[in-house]
Amino acid sequence: MASTLVRLPPEQAARALDHYREAVGARRARVVLGVVLLAGAIVLAGIGGEVDIEKFLANSHRLPAYVWNLTPPLALATLGSDLAEWFWNLDGWLLLLGDTLLIAYLGTLLGAVGAFVLCFAASANLEKRLWLRFAARRLLEFCRTVPELVFALLFVMAFGLGALPGVLALAIHTMGALGKLFAEVVENIDMKPVEGAVATGAGRLTSIRFAVLPQVLSNFASYALLRFEINVRSAAVMGFVGAGGIGTDLMVAIRKFYYTDVSAMLLLIIATVMIIDLATEQLRHRLIGLEQRP
Amino acid sequence: MSPLRRIAVANADALRARHSDLFDGVLARRLTAIAVVVVLAALAALAVWRLDVSLARFGSGLVQIANIVGAMFPPTPGTHLVVFLHALAETLAIAFLGTLIAAAIAFPLGLLAAKNVIPNVFAHFAVRRLLDTVRGVDVLIWALIFINVVGLGPFAGILAIAASDTGSFGKLFSEAIENADRKPVEGVVAAGGSALHAVRYGLVPQVVPVIASQVLYYFESNTRSATIIGIVGAGGIGLHLAEQIRVLEWGQVAFLVLLILVTVAVIDWVSGRLRFAIIGRSTVGAG
User: Fold this and answer.
1) Is the ipTM of this complex over 0.95?
2) Does B158 sit within 8 Å of A154, measured CB to CB?
3) CB A49 to CB B260 under 8 A?
4) A residues 41-100 near B, CB within 8 Å?
5) Residues 6+ apart with CB under 8 A from B271
6) Would you call B235 an interface residue with chain A, using a CB distance cutoff of 8 Å?
7) What's the CA gap between B151 and B147, in Å, rounded?
8) Chain B contacts of A99, Cβ < 8 Å?
9) Residue A115: predicted pLDDT
10) What are the chain A neighbours of B58 within 8 Å (beta carbons)?
11) Residue B169: exposed, middle, or buried by beta-carbon count in 10 A (0-12, 13-18, 19+)?
12) CB nearest to A153's CB, from B57, B92, B245
């Protein structure tokens, strides 16, 4: 096959080239402007963040050294006893991890109950009173915008050290986050069953129970499980401010340079988080399957 | 009772017979629901017992909370306004640089973890597990570790956010790259472009808008993270917040919380606009 390249007449080619330059030039100018702005922001942030490249380079060998210190001395010949020494406090740590899971569970449960109560007031299709909807939405927004660790710090001052402030901090944050998601689910329901229930004389509670709940419950459960996953991670660090769980021991180990303890606890936390992720994913897939069957 | 309902109740038996498929499963469904609730409640009871949550403690704590909230008004910066604003700037700098460094590190890792760029199963499996592990460690734990490495201060915070986001970005970027359309790449190759040309002109224009929008979204969420890593000593406004809480200066605590809320709202708004602009432009370009 002979290739046939059609050459444009010179003045037409010149015009096309001009158009091309114009189009590309404008975009290129925008990209250059963006890069300059970004570079300026980096320099400003570098000054604000006290970035010291020299100091970093001088100390950068410490990070690999730190990671190296985290790995315990394991020899193949004495693997069993080495592992036993590495995880010397396995029972205690597992108990703390169990507490961490319970904190996450209780926080998620309380938060989900709170979100459930508030979400109907925050959704536009079920709540016609503007002031109530506005108030419910602002309350949920406040609860999810304040970081849970700030709540934990406050609650530790009010309730004393222990798991209770951690549970409450997680519950409040969960209520804010889930309340918004729940309300969005409720706003997307099919309104016909609600109208049917109202037409047969159902009150507000009855129509929610029989017309709204069957449509939203599986979604609610799925979101709550997702939140539980997130809360397990958060509960693991609640101990940093004294709000229970494995975090307190982990912080002490990091601060006191008990390297092998740090790696042992981190491994346990990562393994727990992965197991929880897998389990909740399975459950959520089943829930979604339930929803599609009818 | 409405007329419709009265008729329905009167004909309950006939309705039951006609729609037996709807009425039959009721008992089983109800039992399942009760079982689920019982299990949830039992777990909650176990948690309450294990975690030593008592009503008395809860009650006295609530009284304390009421006192604290009362003491929070009016919110006041006290004599620390300049210090607080400086810490706020530091917080934004930590979030910004941390996100940017994470994106810079994660982009090549994302290419390595993408099946359509590196067909080697072991390579992308290894990279993905590494990213999972990095992501499994909370940003606060990274902060504590980096404090040990580079000392107290905002730099440790930047590195902590960079480390924890590298894991998330690597995963997201690799997914974005895997979802890219193959046709532009094939087109560039067919027109005689090299592998590098194919990535630059076939792949990058497709993934950059997606990646930029994800980076902006993480900048938003990192602004929140950066406000709390100061609590463990890694710079930013969290340090002052923790300090003011410990010395019971509730007016200043309220001021700091409000400052954080306003900042987060502003950053959300700005980045939302930017993200919309980026995504909007890419769909216009595609159409």
Assistant:
1) no
2) no
3) no
4) 41-42, 44-52, 55-56, 59, 62-63, 66, 98-99
5) B216, B217, B219, B220
6) yes
7) 4
8) 50-51
9) 95
10) 159, 164
11) buried
12) B245
Tokens representing A74? Answer: 């394991």
What share of chain B in percent tops pLDDT 70?
A: 96
Give the tens place of pLDDT for each residue, A68-93.
888 887 777 778 888 888 888 888 89
CA B166 to chain A, closest CA, distance in angstroms equals 16
Q: Which residues of A touch B225 (CB under 8 A)?
A: 147
Task: Please judge whether A49 and B155 are an interchain contact, meaning their C-beta atoms are less than 8 angstroms apart.
Answer: yes
Q: What is the pLDDT of residues A13-67, one digit of tens each?
A: 888 888 888 888 888 888 899 889 889 988 888 887 777 777 777 777 888 888 8
pLDDT at A291 over 60: no
Identify the pLDDT of residue A108: 95
All domains in chain A, ordered by first residue:
90-292 (1.10.3720.10)
Verify whether the Cβ–Cβ distance A201 to B136 is below 8 Å.
no
Partners of residue A56 in chain B, C-beta under 8 Å: 150, 155
Tokens (6 digits) for A31: 């990209």
B68 with A154: Cβ contact below 8 A: yes
User: In this predicted model, what pLDDT tens digit does every residue of B120-179 receive, in sequence order?
Assistant: 778 778 888 888 888 878 889 899 888 888 888 888 899 999 999 998 898 888 888 888
Nearest neighbour of B158 by CB, restricted to A51, A109, A269: A51
Residue A1 has pLDDT above 80, yes or no: no
Phi-psi group of B114: left, alpha or beta (phi > 0 → left; psi -120 to 50 → alpha; rest → beta): beta
Residue B284 scores a pLDDT above 70: no
Where residue B283 falls among pLDDT bands split at 50, 70, 90? very low
Q: Which pLDDT score, from 0 to 100, does residue A294 have?
A: 44
Give the list of residues 6+ apart from residue A121 with CB closer than 8 angstroms, or none: A127, A132, A133, A136
For B50, the closest chain A residue by CA position comes to A99
Q: List all residues of chain A from 214 to 253 with a beta carbon under 8 Å from chain B.
A: 233-234, 236-237, 240-241, 244, 250-251
Nearest alpha-carbon partner for A244 in A177, A172, A178, A170: A170
Count A/B contacts: CB-CB distance under 8 Å.
173
| Residue B15 in contact with partner chain A when CB distance is under 8 A | no
